[in-house]
Amino acid sequence: xxxxxxxxxxxxxxxxxxxxxxxxxxxxxxxxxxxxxxxxxxxxxxxxxxxxxxxxxxxxxxxxxxxxxxxxxxxxxxxxxxxxxxxxxxxxxxxxxxxxxxxxxxxxxxxxxxxxxxxxxxxxxxx
Length: 127
Hints:
Elements: E1 2-7, E2 14-19, H1 36-55, H2 57-70, H3 74-77, H4 79-93, H5 96-116
Antiparallel strand pairs: 1-2
C-alpha cells in the first residue's frame, strides 16, 4: 500500500490518499484484513439478513403477521412474538461458526468487487 500526503497551504491539516492497488484501484482482492466499519456494520448486516431468511423465518412471519393484525397496538400485543424473534436472532449472532460463515461471504463479495470493479447489486447472476 502506498500512502501520499498532501498539506493544505491554508491549514496544517494533512490529507492521506491511499493508492489501494488491485486491478481497478479498489484494493487487493486477496487482502483479508477488515476495517472497523466492515466488522461492526457490514458483516452484522449480512448476519442479520441471513439469520432472518434462513434460521428465523418462522419467527419473522409470526411477528409480521401479528403486526399486521394489530396495527397501532402491535407494541403491546406482539411482545411475545418480538421476544421470540429477538431470542432467535440473538442465538445466531452469538454463534461463532455462523459469524465466520458470514465473514467469509463478505470477504468473497468484496474480493469479487475488487477483481471486477462491479458492485454486487449491478452484477448479473449467471445461471
